[in-house]
Amino acid sequence: MQKYRILLVEDEPKVAASVRTWLEENGFAVELAPDGAVGRFLIRQNKYDLILLDLNLPYISGQELCREIRTANPAIPIIMVTALGSIEQKLMGFDAGADDYLVKPFDLRELTVRIKTLLRRNSNSAGGDNEDEVLQVADLEMNTAFKSVRRNGQPIELTAKEYCLLEYLLRLNGRIASRHEIVEAVWDVNFDTGTNVVEVYINFLRKKIDRNFEPKLIHTKPGLGYYIGVIAG
Ligand code: CA
Fold first, then answer.
1. Measured in angstroms, how far is the CA atom of residue 13 from the centroid of ligand 1?
2. What is the pLDDT of residue 129?
3. Which of 20, 29, 52, 86 is most buried when burial is the number of CB atoms within 10 A of its CB?
4. Helix-strand-coil percent breakdown of the chain, rounded to 5?
5. In the CATH scheme, what is the code of domain 5-126?
6. 104 CA distance to ligand 1 centroid (A)?
7. Distance CA 228, CA 216 (A)
8. Contact criterion met (CB below 8 Å) for 122 and 99
C-alpha cells in the first residue's frame, strides 16, 4: 500500500524532528520545510495528501501560505499548528482555510487521530457517494450531490468542515445536538478535545448563513446545544 505523504512546515527543529519521527513510525511519508518559503516551493513541486502547517514561520506566514494552498487546491486537508491557543489565532487559521488546528504543545497521539480523520474524510468524499439529495430548511438548500449550499437562491461558499457541520445539523431536522455529539459526528473523535471548536464553527456558519438573511436559522439552546430551524412567531 502506498504511504500517505505529509508536508510538515515547521521552523522549530526540535518540534519538527519529534513530529517527523512520530509520523514516520506511524507509517506516513514526511517531508519537512523549515520555513514558509521552502514550504511554498515544495507544495508547488509535489503532491501531498495533507499539510501540517505552523502558523508562525519565517519569510511567509502559515496564514498566508494556507490561503495560497487553499486557492490552488480547495480539497487538500490542512492542519494549522499554533503556539498560542488564543481565539484570534484559531480564527486566523480558519479564516485562511485550515480544516483543523492544534495548539502547541500537543499530544502526538492526538495529532495522528486528527490526521487520520481528515484523510478518511477526504477519501470518502472523493469516491462516489451514497444517497444524494436536497436538504432544506426555509430558504436554505443543501444539495449533497454537488456539495453546494444556497440561501434565498444565492450560492454560499463553505469550507469542508463547515459543510459537514451544516449537513449534520440539517439531518437532525430541528433536533438539538450537544457539543459533544457534534464533535463526535463532525470531527470523528470520541473524546472531549477540550477546545471550543464547535462554538468557533457555529459562528462561522452563522456569519455565512444567517448574518445577511432572515429568519435566523441556527439557534443555541443554552446548556444543551445547537439546532437548525425556523422559530415560529
Ligand atoms: Ca514557528
1. 10
2. 42
3. 52
4. 40, 20, 40
5. 3.40.50.2300
6. 10
7. 9
8. no
Within its chain, how far is the Cα of 199 from the centroid? 13
- The confidence score (pLDDT) of residue 78 equals 94
- Cell 510538515 sits on residue: 8
Segments of the chain assigned to CATH 1.10.10.10: 134-228
pLDDT the model gives residue 157: 92
For 16-75, the pLDDT digits (tens) are 999 999 999 999 999 999 999 999 999 998 989 999 999 999 999 999 999 999 888 878
Span from the CA of 63 to the centroid of ligand 1 (angstroms): 12
Chain CA centroid to CA 137, Å = 24
Return the pLDDT at 205.
96
All CATH 3.40.50.2300 domain ranges of the chain, comma separated, are 5-126
**Set of cell numbers at residue 7:** 508536508
What are 121's three cell numbers? Answer: 474524510
* Ligand 1 center–CA 89 separation, angstroms: 13
CA distance 104 to 16: 12
The string of pLDDT tens digits covering residues 117-172 is: 888 877 655 444 444 588 899 999 998 877 889 999 899 999 888 999 999 999 88
How far apart CA 233 and CA 42 sit, in angstroms, is 56
Q: Are 69 and 77 in contact (CB under 8 A)?
A: no
Ion ligand 1 — residues with CB < 5 Å: 11, 54, 56
pTM over 0.70: no
* Angle formed at CA 69 by CA 68 and CA 72, multiple of 5 degrees: 90
Query: What integer pLDDT is reported at residue 132 of this predicted model?
Result: 58
CATH class for the domain made up of 134-228: mainly alpha
How far is ligand 1, taken at its centre, from the CA of residue 144, in Å?
A: 38
